[in-house]
Amino acid sequence: MAVKQVLPPEVKSLLDAGHLYLDVRSTHEFEQGHVPGALNIPLLHFDPVRGQMSPNPDFLRVVEAAVPKDSHVVCGCASGQRSLRAAEILQQAGYPDVVNMAGGFTGARDPMGRVVVQGWLDHGLPASRESDERTAYESLLRLLPAP
Questions:
Q1: How many CB atoms lie within 10 A of CB 111?
Q2: What is the DSSP code string of 102-121?
Q3: What is the pTM of this model?
């Protein structure tokens, strides 16, 4: 089943109605600003040795530890691409109500850098730099059982 794409103004309405926002960007991106109340569980981590992003092997395990399967989930990232992949992973893992925020936090751009889908910030929606033990990845990672 294809993941439903939702534009930021509709996402704001969903969040106001109680949906959970899952920000799958890196912890560094999250710290620079995010949707207020978002949980940060990166789909990818920056690998300084290779100088590129690599899959987070704990992604699904942390989501399953932090987010009940019956939750209404909105996945988001910078442009909507990583979060689309994350939403697909969650659907395959049995999360029945998952949508993707098209345009992401900063907007989707074409190869020339032009905005093709406005993001959360483009719509003037609120942003935060605040996080705590309920939202920060380091805290959510601690929900996993010790190896």
A1: 5
A2: TTTTT-EE-TTS-EEE--TG
A3: 0.95
Tens-place pLDDT, residues 34-61: 999 999 999 999 888 888 889 999 999 9
Place of tokens 């939403």: 87
Strand 20-23 versus strand 73-76 pairing type? parallel
Are 11 and 107 spatial neighbours (Cβ–Cβ below 8 Å)?
no
Active site members: 77
Q: Assess if residue 146 is contained within a domain.
A: no
Q: Domain total for the chain?
A: 1
Rounded CA-CA distance 98/22 in Å is: 10
Query: CA-based Rg of the chain, rounded to a whole angstrom?
Result: 14
Range of 33's domain? 4-141
Residue 101: pLDDT band with limits 50, 70, 90: very high
